[in-house]
Amino acid sequence: MIVPYTIYPTNSHILPSLKVMVAVATGISLNCMALAMFLGGGVWLGMAALLIPMFIVFGVFSGSGEYILEEKGIHKNVRPALLYRLFKYESKAFCAWSDVVMYKTGKDMTRSLQEYEFIEIKIPKNITWQITSQSSKMLFENFKSEFIKAVKSFNQQCEAPESSEVVPSVPQPVQQKTELVLEKHSSHHIIEQKKSFYETRWAKPVYLMLAVFFSGIVGFLIFNQQYFSLSNIFRISFVVIPGMVYFGYRIYTKKKV
Questions:
Q1: What is the DSSP string of 11-56?
Q2: Measuring CA to CA, how many Å separate 167 from each of 63, 156, 162, 164, 256?
Q3: Is 146 exposed, middle or buried (0-12, 13-18, 19+ CB in 10 A)?
Q4: Is residue 255 very low, low, confident or very high in pLDDT (cuts 50, 70, 90)?
Q5: How far apart are CA 113 and CA 44, in angstroms?
Q6: What is the pLDDT of residues 38-70, one digit of tens each?
Q7: Can you say whether the dihedral through the CA atoms of 121, 123, 125, 131 is positive or negative?
Q8: Residue 56 exposed, middle or buried by CB count within 10 Å (0-12, 13-18, 19+)
């Protein structure tokens, strides 16, 4: 299995997944804001208690780094902004190809409606590495291409028939052969590609239900104009409609291979 040495510099974190990262930052920040409001700190102190801990959490757990592909597996190096600046701390993780559980590729959109591509790599201990194209689309495309090639090469090796292996001429005990075969099958597996939500059978029913639901809300507002407000018009025009258009675009357009 030959894998070109490929580096993708990007921002990342040292927690098990991006969801955990967001949950930790949000939980700590909301608790700090609630404490500040409880102590009578006022609105401005409450906002400061919300934002400052959030920036600290992101500075402690996230920062610049890179993902590296090589023949033995994938490296993830992260230099958390605050920890690296204060203590020169750098987190280094490695996952062998045989330990990759599955991966998923797709597209998503930021809150500013900027589309980006991503790769999610699931490894043992319920850890997910999410790599996005937000740092560099060109470098990401190269990294993604080499990653998929490496996965296909690994899977082909795992699916190779037993007869293709070189059998040693020196006879060995039957028990030893059995243990050798069991070890081989337990340490090799096929890396599966998981579908994104937009590719599953639930995507279209969910989209249709949301379309009916939001159409009902719009119809209700049209026939009950006393509920019309600038905030409702803004939500419908800049949140609901773009979101539904993007949802439909993701479902009804073919994914590039």
A1: EEESSS-HHHHHHHHHHHHHHHHHHHHHTT-HHHHHHHHHHHHHHH
A2: 49, 20, 10, 9, 42
A3: middle
A4: low
A5: 29
A6: 888 788 888 899 899 999 999 999 999 999 999
A7: negative
A8: middle
